[in-house]
């Protein structure tokens, strides 16, 4: 165990006096460094070697005076020698070291002077005289085991350690040691490897036991491990007096980590070597928060190919825990200042907080949350008791925060075990930080407290059985994202069980169920606050209404803060990334509410205060959009494109069409242009065999046509879907929805990078594919409004996404869009005239005309570039200035129309200077329009409802 700082200072003073007159590099250097390490209570022989042979950059052999692999390199010179040259010589050795051997620290010395470089931080080196060593001992805390490390997520040692453990896992499994026993063994080894380098065990005691006491053939390795595990689970007073001295060095751990008897693992030489390779790494450089998920991934060879891609980066975790609780606690501490009474009350408050991660995995969120809570506690203790460099005696009695404040639920056993161990290891690291600060070492051994990590299905168990609501303060985490098409039958059943059979729940992402379960807990104790990382799909499209209707059974639930869509990624190899949001919610009136916006999904957020955050994560009225089959504002109806379900038999490229018509010239009247989103955007052409209304007698005379019809019929009859097998019209598309008049073409999917979605006009003989929509009878006015930034703002905030790209929706986006209330122009169709608003105002006609003119100018600007595709024209980097200016003029015309209609109706003039202002106005206008509609009767959820008769529901009123 590390010495106290007072003891280290006393030893440093004696060391300085003993060596004050030594000068010869060769004569006493080794004794000098053995004594130097002894100052810090560490046996040099256990950690470092003299005269390490390496190949230098010039190809010659070199000898490092002393190397502690991965930690420290020392270059020693005779008294008075140039330390700059010693530094250059030491750096020249790096070429001959492996990545794992490269040190963090470089120390040069000539007996009289020391110069220490921290190669990780790059800070100016510290130089001091031998006589001043006692004043600088804290800078060598890494030797004693006091190091307060800032972990780098991209540190290759994290990946290297996981890879080595992965190989050991594979070797043991291949030999027949598998399942629960293997998982427990690996978790125990994980604890031992950390313990060897972080002061839980005597320095490198575990590595020495493996290397010195086990045979090279590995045959007795399993037996030695079994003995060690038994020792770690046995209190010193219960150990045999004849216990091997090397085993007796190890502390009593307890915590039930080593209690379960395991089958003896039969190692061979390769397995032993793999374990020794793992133990040779410096595990003090590895973060429990990062390594846990990496360690889990070694269990899955497929996941291991992207090793490092599965953990959640600390930066992203802080995006959630900051606004959920940490920022508020930091602000409270700052306000308290050095007021002793308030500091003590605040300390008691910290020790009383309870956290639940109901999808905890390997514990990343819990570990980081625990670390941040402990850092706050250290700040409190510093203000209460510490002066710089002083010692707080009995420091262990002043540390009140412990791991038993943290709870988790995890469906898989192995990560649940890792989560518990990771919290213990983080606790130990924070104890080292306390010791470094206050000068007195302490370790919580034996382990008497443990986090509560329940191995179970979070959607089936009652969370109240994990932690009582009256004890809980925060629910947090990163529940699994799974779209409905990726869910297993069991997961679909879990989802339905949570939602209680609510309508349309089958389209919901799996993560949504955690919101309902959390809301239930928060109803039982309204002061609980929650936050989840989630797929952005639950804030877009039809899922929004379904989720928040389900949450409506828990009155008062509101969003406190939100990160809008960003790319949730990490720094590791593989760079797994998904498009996420973070939503913090509670029954409290939390102020200020904050929205974090991202100009780029892979960029940094900027925050904005909000008066209210609605389910679309907008500062706007609390509304949700339901699927609407008809247009809210009586505009021309949008229709889906036609779906072939033909195995490609009705479709042709240009070349295929030419060849087909040469063979079957009589089919010319039936071959039409086929327009899908891809063809429209990229200027490509396809053709379709369109047999709607075809005379059967004529078709019989076209054998090539009939051959394709027969192929379609065979394909459909082989379908798994009964509706497709039973469809009785083999000459037709599976779904026929072709407009009977000219129409506006609307691509179903388009890149989020475009400032505008391109739309276009087509004729009734241009067949619309099912990757797009059509608006028959639409005019330039309609083209202008949907082609403006007003409509684009609505799209950005309401439509579904494919990754981050827009997935346009007829029933959510178009039919719910609030149009400007303008009178129809003379050129509008009779149908549009019938559907126009009853509040027609002749004075508003000019705004409609302005929109139509600006829309035509956009079409004219496009026409100036006949060789460019719409994808080229609407790429923000290549968009022609003429088209940019035309769209900007259209934006102004549409904005002016909205402002004019609001004034004409006697409402306040809206601010439309940004997307946020536009969409806030549109939600307000939507709320006004829908309030005038008849209230539709809806079938309530088949689920027991908690009635808010009192602030707290009794346990057992409902299961959460």
TrEMBL record:
Pfam families: MmeI_C, MmeI_hel, MmeI_Mtase, MmeI_N, MmeI_TRD. Residues 333-596 form the MmeI-like DNA-methyltransferase domain. One of its GO terms (molecular function) is site-specific DNA-methyltransferase (adenine-specific) activity. Residues 180-258 form the MmeI-like helicase spacer domain. Residues 621-822 form the MmeI-like target recognition domain. Its EC number is 2.1.1.72. Keywords: Methyltransferase, Transferase. GO terms for biological process: methylation. Residues 11-174 form the MmeI-like N-terminal domain. Residues 824-843, 940-960 are annotated as: Disordered. Residues 846-933 form the MmeI-like C-terminal domain. InterPro entries: MmeI_C, MmeI_hel, MmeI_Mtase, MmeI_N, MmeI_TRD, N4_N6_ade-DNA_methylase, SAM-dependent_MTases_sf. Residues 825-836 have a biased composition (Low complexity). It catalyses: a 2'-deoxyadenosine in DNA + S-adenosyl-L-methionine = an N(6)-methyl-2'-deoxyadenosine in DNA + S-adenosyl-L-homocysteine + H(+). This is site-specific DNA-methyltransferase (adenine-specific). It comes from Rhodanobacter sp. FW102-FHT14D07.
